[in-house]
Each structure stands twice: as structure tokens, then as C-alpha cells.
Design brief:
The protein is an alpha+beta fold. It has one domain (25-117). 26% of the residues lie in helices and 18% in strands. The chain is built from three helices and five strands; from the N terminus they run H-E-H-E-E-E-H-E. It has helices spanning 3-21, 36-41, 90-95; strands spanning 26-27, 46-47, 63-68, 82-87, 99-104. A five-stranded antiparallel beta sheet has the order 1-4-3-5-2. The longest helix has 19 residues, at 3-21.
Length: 120
């Protein structure tokens, strides 16, 4: 094996590790359509602001982030335009450009779609 081929293998392994680590956010489960309006109306909803963070601490204080999926609704509201994902902390959640905001706690801990989850 040549020196350049060893470098290529190391680079490929590093790229694979980087791609796999990007999957660290846990989905809240199958999404039947997140009620983004209700989540944004909560008093504890915090919108992500620009500029987005470039560096975050590695603390674990989970948040439930509201992330746009890229599905565009042309004629009105539609299922699948947003998803809930658990971020390890608020900084890590808002570092994702698709995240519009977050609420405290992991998504699985208290489903946003439940009527019990909404502010009175």
C-alpha cells in the first residue's frame, strides 16, 4: 500500500466518522405532522437567532427543537413541514440552520402534540 493510498483511507474514515456523528440528534418518533403553531405559541418557546452559533459546549441539557424538514406547503398547512428533534443543548440545536426554535426538555419526555403539553 502506498503512502497516498493510506492517506486516502484515513481521510475516508474521518469523513465517515464525521457523517455518522451528525446523526446524534434523536428524532421524536414517526411524525404525523407537528403542530408548529402550537409549539411556537408556548411561553417557554425560544426562537433561534442569527448569527447561528459556530461553537457549543458539550454539556447535556436536552431541548426539543422544532426543525423545518424542507417540505414546502403550497396550498396551506401540511403534514411533514416540521419535525421535533432532541438536541443535546440549546446551542447545538440552534447551530442547525433548519431549527427555528426550541423548548426545554427532550422531545420524548413530553410530546408537543399532546393537549396536556400546551400552555393553558
Amino acid at each position: 500500500m502506498t503512502h497516498s493510498s493510506a492517506r486516502a483511507r484515513i481521510a475516508a474514515a474521518a469523513l465517515l466518522a464525521l457523517l455518522v456523528s451528525g446523526c446524534a440528534g434523536a428524532r421524536s418518533g414517526p411524525d404525523d405532522g407537528v403542530d408548529a403553531t402550537a409549539m411556537r405559541a408556548r411561553s417557554d418557546f425560544t426562537a433561534c437567532r442569527e448569527p447561528r452559533p459556530e461553537f457549543c459546549t458539550q454539556e447535556y441539557v436536552p431541548v426539543c427543537a422544532l426543525r423545518a424538514t424542507g417540505v414546502e406547503c403550497v396550498t396551506g398547512p401540511c403534514d411533514g413541514a416540521f419535525e421535533r428533534v432532541t438536541g443535546s443543548n440549546r446551542c447545538m440545536a440552534c447551530a442547525d440552520a433548519a431549527v427555528v426554535g426550541w423548548i426545554p426538555g427532550a422531545c420524548d419526555a413530553d410530546p408537543v402534540d399532546s393537549p396536556l403539553y400546551l400552555d393553558p
